[in-house]
UniProtKB/TrEMBL annotation:
Name of the featured protein: Polysaccharide deacetylase family protein
Highest taxon of source: Bacteria
Biological process according to GO: carbohydrate metabolic process
CDD domains reported for this sequence: CE4_SmPgdA_like
Domain spans labelled NodB homology: 84-269
InterPro entries the UniProt entry points to: Cu_amine_oxidase-like_N, Glyco_hydro/deAcase_b/a-brl, Mao_N_sf, NODB_dom, Polysacc_deacetylase_ArnD
PROSITE patterns found in the cross-reference section: NODB (PS51677)
PANTHER family: GLYCOSYL TRANSFERASE-RELATED, POLYSACCHARIDE DEACETYLASE YHEN-RELATED
Entry's Gene Ontology molecular function annotations: hydrolase activity, acting on carbon-nitrogen (but not peptide) bonds
Native source organism of the sequence: Paenibacillus lemnae
């Protein structure tokens, strides 16, 4: 599973391959109709007695929130234009080493991007769940990494992308939109591979810093550190690393790589579909066996709708705005559901998952409470746990009614207003 890399052949062509931002179209049916009828709705009296509103501590917005907010073109924190950013990317996992990689990223409080193989995700769904839960990005690295199969014709590549996407969606509830070609695109993608993946709604990311950890078996940590910290073009470093089996030296090198980028003033972030991708130039002639127009229409053209943006959901709570893109929230039986951890973190709180009790302990708005997605209960303060049937797990993610999150934090929902392409949730 080594990516045969020959860095000198790579030319970066970020200009030509600039991906224009997606057109925002009306939201998907169910959400819109339900919410539109609720436009400015008088708040249901949530609490009979006025709730004392405890101001939230002015915590810095966690990295994920900032990234998410930028995605939605609603900056919470302006980033300096000249900021240097490093994106650590890990290919070929999850493996028995991925847990160690996640521990290291946690130690340094940074996030990374994992381009996973469908085959490995099937073997280790719990690690995929953990990557997702801890706020890292997950990208698609095909199902089995087999060059012969993947690069003889586009339809074969596409089928593996879709197969892997489905495996990940069943675990996390989200479709990965980022794609990394096994071995990189250079010498492997013809123009059609690039064009059709883009048409299908995917964002293909190569890299501009190669750690060299897959050049041969057992590249020593020292060499990986040296290659990973080599100069690169521009202000953004996209570093290629591997967390597949046999990459113990990469794990060993990782803390030193992180410390280097911290020392020279980089911020760490995850790749998102909105970032202009680093892509190598097309180096090969069109392959034989190009897909026909009917196949393209049936597979690729309709696929893009899966990633098209519907309406944002914007929650204003005591001066903090949390934004959920369509797909990051959902309606069920007239209730707005959000992923517990990302909702709480974006609102300035934190969540600890208690693996032995399988409950989530939440601190938000100066209060704390416990959600049990398996029992479907919430317990707050000294009171008895109460049933909230909508709480549950999708894959490894806990989903919860937004109304509960707001109420339990002391900022009950006041109104939902439809404004432009966003639904605004106002709280007391
Ligand atoms: Zn790979």
């Amino acid at each position: 599973m080594l990516d045969a890399v020959q860095p000198d052949r790579y030319l970066i062509d970020s200009q030509n391959r600039h991906v224009t931002s997606k057109t925002v179209v009306g939201g998907s049916g169910a959400d819109v109709s339900t919410l539109k009828s609720a436009k400015p709705v008088a708040a249901k009296p949530v609490a009979a007695t006025p709730v004392t509103v405890k101001p939230l501590a002015a915590r810095p917005v966690p990295a994920k929130s900032a990234a998410a907010a930028n995605k939605s073109a609603k900056p919470v924190q302006a980033k300096p234009v000249t900021a240097k950013t490093v994106y650590l990317t890990f290919d070929d996992g999850p493996s028995g080493l991925t847990g160690e990689v996640l521990d290291i990223l946690n130690t340094y409080k940074i996030k990374g991007t994992f381009f996973v193989l469908g085959q490995q995700a099937e073997r280790r769904p719990e690690i995929i769940g953990r990557i997702h839960e801890e706020g890292h990005a997950i990208g698609n690295h095909t199902y089995d990494h087999n060059y012969t199969e993947l690069y003889h014709k586009f339809t074969a590549f596409w089928n593996q992308i879709k197969q892997t996407e489905e495996i990940i969606r069943l675990i996390t509830g989200e479709r990965p939109q980022l794609v990394r070609a096994p071995g990189g695109t250079a010498g492997k993608f013809d123009a059609a591979y690039f064009d059709l993946l883009e048409q299908g709604g995917y964002k293909v990311f190569d890299w501009n810093v190669d750690s060299g950890d897959s050049k041969r078996k057992g590249v020593p940590a020292d060499e990986i550190v040296k290659m990973s910290t080599a100069p690169h073009q521009g202000n953004e470093a996209v570093v290629l690393l591997h967390d597949g089996a046999g990459h113990e030296e990469t794990v060993k090198a990782l803390p030193r790589i992180i410390k280097y980028y911290q020392k020279v003033g980089y911020r760490f972030d995850i790749l998102t579909p909105e970032i202009k991708p680093v892509q190598f130039k097309v180096q090969i002639e069109p392959k034989k066996g190009q897909p026909g127009s009917v196949w393209i229409a049936e597979h690729v053209t309709v696929n893009a709708a899966l990633f098209r943006q519907g309406n944002h959901l914007e929650v204003d709570m005591n001066g903090l705005a949390a934004i959920f893109r369509s797909g990051e929230y959902r309606m069920e039986n007239g209730k707005l559901l959000v992923p517990l951890r990302s909702a709480v973190e974006r609102l300035g709180g934190r969540v600890n998952w208690d693996a032995s009790n399988r409950t989530a302990k939440v601190w938000l708005g100066g209060r704390s409470w416990t959600a049990d997605p398996f029992m479907g209960t919430i317990q707050s303060g000294k009171s008895q746990a109460r049933q909230v049937p909508e709480i549950g797990m999708t894959g490894h993610t806990t989903w919860i009614p937004l109304r509960e999150v707001l109420q339990l934090s002391g900022h009950p929902l006041k109104a939902i207003v439809s404004k432009g392409n966003a639904y605004k949730i106002q709280t007391l």
